[in-house]
Structure formats: structure tokens, C-alpha cells
Design brief:
With about 130 residues, the chain is α+β, with helices and mostly antiparallel strands. It contains two helices and nine strands; from the N terminus they run E-E-H-E-E-E-E-H-E-E-E. The strands form two sheets. It has a five-stranded mixed beta sheet, covered by helices on one side. It has a four-stranded mixed beta sheet with strand order 6-9-8-7, covered by helices on one side. A hairpin with a 6-residue loop joins strand 3 and strand 4.
């Protein structure tokens, strides 16, 4: 088993995602701008046991294939808020993937943010926003 690690340490909350097609979701996240930090292949061919995906401006999500790890999590039931200084660029990459945009890019009027929300291949929602709280 080949384990790959970047050595970059992230000191944040790390939400976990399980996916029925983790390799596809991993490629989707990479295309949006995430970077792979750690990859551990699964026991089954094409499965992912554990993968750490970092966002360039900070933060990390953990990814594994459904039934690869003992977890109560199920695909398609998460919503993530990702802070980025350039949601327009992320939206361009999202549209190039043919992703389902569920909330178009908008300048919010009640708080200072420019953001949009997209659905990933498993049905999870991802909001990319300038608002960091």
C-alpha cells in the first residue's frame, strides 16, 4: 500500500466526507482547487481508505469511500462553507466541470460576502464565499 503525504500541517476543524464514488469526488475537489495532502488507498480496488484534501487559503476535508471505514456518515448529507478571496474563479472551474449550481454567484446584501453554492457528485453542498465570519 502506497501512502503519500505532503507534510503540511493544518490546524483546523476537519469535516469528513464519505462517498459512493470517492475517486470521482477526489478529482472533482482537485479540479475546484483543493490540494491532496495525504492519500491511503482502500482495501477494494478503486476505493479510498483515507484522503486529506486542503484548501489553499486554509482548511481541510477528509474523504473516504463508503463502507471503507466504520462511520455513521452517509454520502450526500453535508454542507460546507469554503472561504476564498476569488469565488468567481472557483465558479469558473465549477462550471467547467458541469456541476449543478444551486445558488448563483451573488453579492449578499445583509452581510459582506460574494458567494455561490454548488452540488458535488454525491449531492453534498459547497458554498464558496468571501465571508470568513
Amino acid at each position: 500500500m502506497a501512502i503519500e503525504i505532503s507534510g503540511i500541517r493544518q490546524a483546523n476543524i476537519w469535516p469528513s466526507i464519505v462517498s459512493d464514488d470517492a475517486p470521482r469526488l477526489r478529482e472533482w475537489l482537485l479540479a475546484l482547487g483543493f490540494r491532496q495532502d495525504l492519500f491511503i488507498p482502500g482495501e477494494r480496488s478503486g476505493a479510498i481508505h483515507h484522503c486529506q484534501m486542503d484548501w489553499p487559503e486554509g482548511g481541510r476535508v477528509l474523504l473516504s469511500s463508503t463502507d471503507e471505514r466504520d462511520t455513521p456518515c452517509r454520502p450526500g448529507v453535508n454542507w460546507f462553507h469554503v472561504v476564498t478571496p476569488d469565488p468567481d474563479a472557483v465558479l469558473e472551474r465549477t462550471l467547467a466541470l458541469g456541476a449543478n449550481v444551486v445558488q448563483p454567484l451573488v453579492d449578499q446584501s445583509d452581510y459582506p460576502s460574494r458567494d455561490f453554492t454548488v452540488e458535488d457528485p454525491d449531492g453534498n453542498f459547497w458554498t464558496f464565499a468571501t465571508f470568513a465570519g
